[in-house]
Automatic annotation (TrEMBL):
<feature type="transmembrane region" description="Helical">
    <location>
        <begin position="236"/>
        <end position="257"/>
    </location>
</feature>
<feature type="transmembrane region" description="Helical">
    <location>
        <begin position="484"/>
        <end position="504"/>
    </location>
</feature>
<feature type="transmembrane region" description="Helical">
    <location>
        <begin position="383"/>
        <end position="404"/>
    </location>
</feature>
<feature type="transmembrane region" description="Helical">
    <location>
        <begin position="62"/>
        <end position="82"/>
    </location>
</feature>
<feature type="transmembrane region" description="Helical">
    <location>
        <begin position="329"/>
        <end position="355"/>
    </location>
</feature>
<feature type="transmembrane region" description="Helical">
    <location>
        <begin position="181"/>
        <end position="201"/>
    </location>
</feature>
<feature type="transmembrane region" description="Helical">
    <location>
        <begin position="109"/>
        <end position="129"/>
    </location>
</feature>
<keyword id="KW-0472">Membrane</keyword>
<feature type="transmembrane region" description="Helical">
    <location>
        <begin position="300"/>
        <end position="323"/>
    </location>
</feature>
<feature type="transmembrane region" description="Helical">
    <location>
        <begin position="410"/>
        <end position="433"/>
    </location>
</feature>
<feature type="transmembrane region" description="Helical">
    <location>
        <begin position="30"/>
        <end position="50"/>
    </location>
</feature>
<keyword id="KW-0812">Transmembrane</keyword>
<feature type="transmembrane region" description="Helical">
    <location>
        <begin position="453"/>
        <end position="472"/>
    </location>
</feature>
<keyword id="KW-1133">Transmembrane helix</keyword>
<feature type="transmembrane region" description="Helical">
    <location>
        <begin position="141"/>
        <end position="169"/>
    </location>
</feature>
<protein>
    <submittedName>
        <fullName>Uncharacterized protein</fullName>
    </submittedName>
</protein>
């Protein structure tokens, strides 16, 4: 079986839906094109609404967006690699099938790269096209974006293969997932440390060492061209040639070390050895010893074994850091309140998603056993509140300290985070459980939380953003003038009463067992 035939075979067995008619295939492709155009023109109209000062520096914002997509590409490549190697339906068959290792390596390498290409094409390309239409970048930048997307996709596929191969050689297959994801997390945290804590991160990005500059040409040259924003067609051609050669070097290295790992037994790892963890055993013992609430214990054990924990926290922190280092929202008055509100909302929604994903996976089991949804709600809302409060407050306090924000604003921000996370944890979780009980005789979660998140965002989050912004303004007046007018004092009392009322209403969110009543929010 040659490479093309095997890749075609892989595509067929991984296709979720059976192949339709020619008309359906054409309609599917047209829908993809229309989606691409919709994203492009949506970004275009948003960019056109931005102040002229921001539009003039949009090429610099693209550098930050590119850095964020690099992290997303890395995460996507790792998840796809893990799925292809250890969760694919033909995993055991390949041990006896007449397929050469080289065909397996190349096909899986290509599948991982294609997955990353799709992600980058749907985000980076529309962003570049929209800014070109808005007159913020040149057409040459758009042209080099195409080979950049292809090259970085194959690069991250190569890096992922190298990381998993090294992880296998280190661990001998035991706890491979833990080792690989730990290496990936360490690299991503390193990026965050550079962006957040080092003022000279730009000099690290545009490094002057020729050896490193040539080695990482496919990652460093594109941001340089973005910053210049004025290149010639000859540069486009040279860039395409050099980036292709650079990519081939990484592909060759990834192929060699992966083939070596195959000889050492990478394909024969058992699921039991794969899931072992070097740290989860210790953490598990601590949880069993000190946590006595069964639902909290279950959720914590799920979290420490979940590779999704990486993307849940690292991605929003990195993206926020890229934007914050440029705009300094934390030290820009009332914009600190906006930053806190949005960041907290993102953290709590993604945390809720990962906690509920376990319920979605085991929905039938949870439906058949006599689960106490009241205790589930109490325990999980408490855990959700604590996790999101700690993560959001630690990160935002760190940012505020780095930007020398006054201590009064930091204390106000911590109080805001506490209230936001408490209200959100109870309202969101109560409505999710309510919807899961609505059309069944028990708890049956179908995995959908989008409608609940949208409801909370418009009904609760936006009003809270407005109220805390007003409170922040009154705090500023008190700190600067030492007093408030009578009208401002009355408004302050009213807004405080409303916030306290919303907080009190969230405490009344309750879950009733099926047959006792309805969920109240």
């Amino acid at each position: 079986m040659n490479f093309i035939n095997y890749l075609s075979f892989k595509y067929k067995i991984n296709r979720r839906n059976p192949k339709g008619s020619k008309k359906e295939t054409i309609a599917e492709r047209i829908a993809i094109i229309l989606l691409f155009l919709l994203i492009t023109f949506t970004i275009f109209f948003i960019v056109r609404l931005l102040p002229q000062g921001i539009q003039e520096n949009m090429n610099k914002y693209m550098v930050g967006f590119f850095a964020f997509l690099c992290l997303i590409s890395f995460s996507t490549a790792v998840k796809k690699y893990y799925k292809e190697y250890f969760l694919s339906p033909e995993r055991e068959i390949l041990l006896i099938a007449p397929v050469k290792n080289s065909q397996i390596i190349l096909s899986r390498f290509s599948i991982v790269a294609i997955e990353v290409i799709i992600i980058n094409t749907m985000f980076l390309m529309p962003f570049a096209m929209a800014n070109y239409l808005a007159g913020n970048i040149s057409k040459e930048i758009v042209l080099i974006t195409i080979p950049q997307i292809v090259a970085m996709s194959f690069f991250f596929s190569a890096i992922t293969h190298i990381i998993f191969a090294i992880a296998y050689l280190i661990s001998k297959g035991k706890g491979l997932k833990t080792v690989a994801y730990s290496l990936m997390t360490a690299a991503s945290v390193g990026v965050i440390v550079i962006i957040v804590f080092l003022q000279g991160y730009k000099s690290l990005l545009f490094i002057q060492d020729k050896l490193i500059e040539n080695l990482l040409y496919l990652l460093l040259q594109y941001p340089k061209y973005l910053m210049i924003n004025n290149i010639k067609f000859i540069d486009v051609g040279l860039f395409t040639i050099f980036i292709a050669l650079n990519t081939l070097c990484f592909i060759a290295a990834a192929y060699w070390i992966t083939a070596y790992s195959y000889k050492k037994g990478l394909l024969t790892i058992s699921s039991r050895d794969l899931e072992k963890s070097f740290y989860s055993l210790f953490v598990t013992n601590v949880i069993h010893k000190h946590i006595h609430t069964h639902f909290i214990k279950k959720d914590l054990l799920f979290l420490i074994r979940s590779p999704q924990l990486f993307s849940v926290y690292v991605s929003p922190i990195l993206f926020t850091s890229v934007i914050e280092i440029r705009n300094q929202f934390a030290s820009s008055g009332v914009l600190l309140t906006v930053l806190i509100n949005i960041f907290t909302f993102v953290i709590i929604t993604v945390t809720l998603h990962i906690l509920m994903s376990d319920d979605a996976t085991n929905s039938e089991l949870l439906f058949t056993i006599p689960i106490n949804t009241q205790e589930l709600f109490k325990s999980r809302s408490k855990l959700l509140h604590i996790l999101t409060f700690l993560n959001a407050s630690i990160y935002l306090v760190t940012v505020c300290l780095l930007e020398a924000v006054r201590i009064e604003y930091i204390v106000f921000g911590i109080l805001q985070i506490f209230i936001l996370t408490y209200i959100a944890s109870r309202i969101l979780l109560a409505r999710v459980i309510k919807r899961s009980q609505k059309n069944s005789s028990g708890y049956l979660f179908n995995g959908s939380i989008v409608r609940t998140i949208l409801y909370y965002f418009f009904v609760w989050n936006i009003p809270l953003l407005i109220f805390f912004s007003i409170l922040h303004e009154y705090l500023r007046r008190v700190l600067e003038t030492g007093s408030l007018s009578r009208h401002a004092t009355i408004m302050l009392i009213i807004i405080l009463a409303i916030v306290v009322g919303m907080l009190y209403k969230s405490t009344k969110s309750k879950i009733y067992q099926k047959g006792e009543g309805l969920c109240q929010t």
